[in-house]
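Late entry, evening session. Most of the bench is empty. Finally got around to the prediction I had been postponing all week. Sequence below, unchanged from the version circulated by S.P.
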Amino acid sequence: MPEGPSIVILREAAGHLAGRKVLDVTGNSTQDIQRLRNRTLRGVHSWGKHFLLAFDGFSVRIHFLLFGSWRINEAKDRPERLGLHFSGGEVLNVYACSVRFIKGALDDAYDWSADVMGTAWNPATARRRLRARPDALVADALLDQDVFAGVGNIIKNEVLHRIRVHPESRIGALPARKLSQLVDEARTYSFDFYEWKQAYVLKKHYQVHTKRVCPRDGTPLSYRKQLGLAQRRAFWCETCQRRYGADTSAVAEPARAPRRP
């Protein structure tokens, strides 16, 4: 699933399409995508994992789910979910994704302060929302898009390793300093992810995600296919990542070579 930094990269790559008129619309979306024909694209935006195309009176929300992808001025050898053919010969194709229409202004639909890579990101708001969920696992809290819009499973695993917190720690048990580190590092790592992704070196910087040994102390990493309410893959080090709060979970599976993401 593309995480927030990847959507920012797409937003920047597609930004020049704003102001262009849609001359033709293709795709197998079940939505009424033909309403986009002869409309002028007013803006290209992102919120977390949502890619947003703004038109007069409404916007198109694209969520890339688990296997979605996109192409600008080229096509894949499979049917597109939505293809927008703009004036000037520009084309935007998106694949294997969810396409939805949003009525009205985007400001009415989105809380921009929750977007970890946005200019309106508010860490104080994130801390307040976390404190309202004292029993939540930190692994689930990081994936809560109402708190950390754009954070996905890779960022989750890497952030928790960076701040030395076990994924099954409870939010309410974290010291204030650790809670602040959790919030701050979610944003910091997202921008690191963005830079590495643009340079095509992201996977080279993984410390624990899909790895077998902790690079900090050499301990075999613990791995679970499904952890927390989110039921997402988790990789962590029992030596350097401290568990805060009561442990109510099962014993982790032994470390082993994980499947490719």
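Two things to note before I forget:
Residues 176-198 form the longest helix (23 residues).
Residues 113-236 form a domain with the Helicase, Ruva Protein; domain 3 fold (CATH 1.10.8.50).
Will write this up properly tomorrow.
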